[in-house]
Design brief:
Layout lengths: L16 H12 L1 E8 L5 E14 L2 E8 L2 E6 L3 E10 L8 H15 L3 E8 L3 H8 L3 E6 L4 E8 L2 H9 L5 E3 L3 H18 L3
Antiparallel strand pairs: 1-2, 1-5, 2-3, 3-4, 6-8, 6-9, 7-8
Helix pairs in contact: 4-5
Length: 196
Amino acid sequence: MLVDPAGWGESDRGRPELVDVLQNAVVRRRKVWLTYAGRTREESRRLIDPWGLIDKDDIWYLVAGTDKGQRTFRIDRTLEATVTEIVADRPDDFELSRAWQRVVGDVERKRSLESATVLVHDRFVWVLRGQFGRHCEVGETLDDGRTRVRVAAPTPLSIAQYLAGWGDQVEVIDSEPVRAELARIGAELTARYAPG
């Protein structure tokens, strides 16, 4: 069997060097000084207890204990990791798979704060599923061949950006904020690209 993790048109990302360093710390149960740049790129340095590593879609994460409880760190935002000889604490009942499922659940809830119901021809429902993933809930198919689909994303703009390329193939039937964003996007595109 051969596994090629790179998507079409992408270069192979490879495994980050820090993964080996942190894996060693997890196995040896050693605390790590971590220098980390969060979403805002503000750097922080903290002493953490490494509990486990996860590779999700070619992005590596470290699940760790901190003075503020369990946290998850993206390896690609980790600027430096220095393994100490201090024995790391790990809860006796810790299970990485269960901890990761909680992380995934929290992230998915944050990614689906806004929703909209749309009508799309039944033959295109699979495309919406591909765009919205688990945030796509398929409902009933109407007499005209269109299916009612509920989609969700962090903001109305996020939903509109996914739907804008559909033109009139998708009709948003219940979210005024998403319709407003689609109208704004349409006006911007018309102003830029309309002839004359």
